[in-house]
Amino acid sequence: MINRDTRQRAMDLFVDYGYSIDKIVRDMELSKSTVSSWSIKGNWSKLRESKIAKRDSFIGELYDFSITIMANLKRDYNNGIRLDNSALTTLDTLLKRAEKLITLETEKKRAEKETQVENSIPPEVAAQPEVVEALRIITLAIEKFEESKVKK
Fold first, then answer.
1. Whole-prediction pTM value?
2. What is the C-alpha to C-alpha distance for residues 74 and 77, in angstroms, rounded to an integer?
3. CA distance to 37, 93, 143, per residue, from 7 (Å)
4. What is the per-residue pLDDT for 137?
5. With 0-12 CB in 10 A as exposed, 13-18 as middle and 19+ as buried, what is 145?
């Protein structure tokens, strides 16, 4: 029996983690018509778009705030003014949180890319879990290779 928690989990996967309807159907073993109906009635696509816009706005504000603090610290340092410990602590905290945010964003993008790959797999292939897993591993290997080229 499908309960409210199941619907909420499906919505969270779609809105927060970028899962496709098809991936939710497969992973949660639900009917496509049920999940599609929930998605339409709950405006999941609008919720996802809104969340992405808010996240991007927040990241931009966080970046701007960090730049402002760094500019003020640099100005004070260059003028021989004693650096404000609270500004240093705030900047340190922001940078640590930004690092965590970047890690979460990277994981999320990887999951979204994985979902895109899975959605591009023909149904007859998707019915073979070992092939899907092999494709997933190959995709991750290609991503890691591309990341290593960028770092060099």
1. 0.51
2. 5
3. 11, 36, 32
4. 77
5. exposed
Residue type, 38: W
Asked whether the predicted pLDDT for residue 116 surpasses 80, the reply is no
Encoded tokens for 125: 């292939």
Cβ partners under 8 Å of residue 76, min gap 6: 82, 83, 84
Which residues have CB under 8 Å from 63's CB, separation 6+? 98
How many other CB atoms sit within 10 Å of the CB of residue 17?
15
pLDDT digits (tens, 9 = 90+) for 39-86: 999 999 899 888 888 877 887 888 888 889 989 999 999 999 998 999
Lowest mean pLDDT, pick from 9-23, 67-81, 127-141: 127-141
Instruction: Calculate the alpha carbon distances from 95 to 86, 100, 102 in Å.
Output: 14, 9, 10
Candidates 132, 140, 135, 110; CA nearest to 19 is 110
Query: Cβ–Cβ contacts within 10 Å for residue 65, how many?
Result: 13
Between the alpha carbon of residue 48 and those of residues 42, 53, 65, 120, the distances in Å are: 11, 9, 26, 21
Q: Which two tokens stand for residue 2?
A: 């499908």
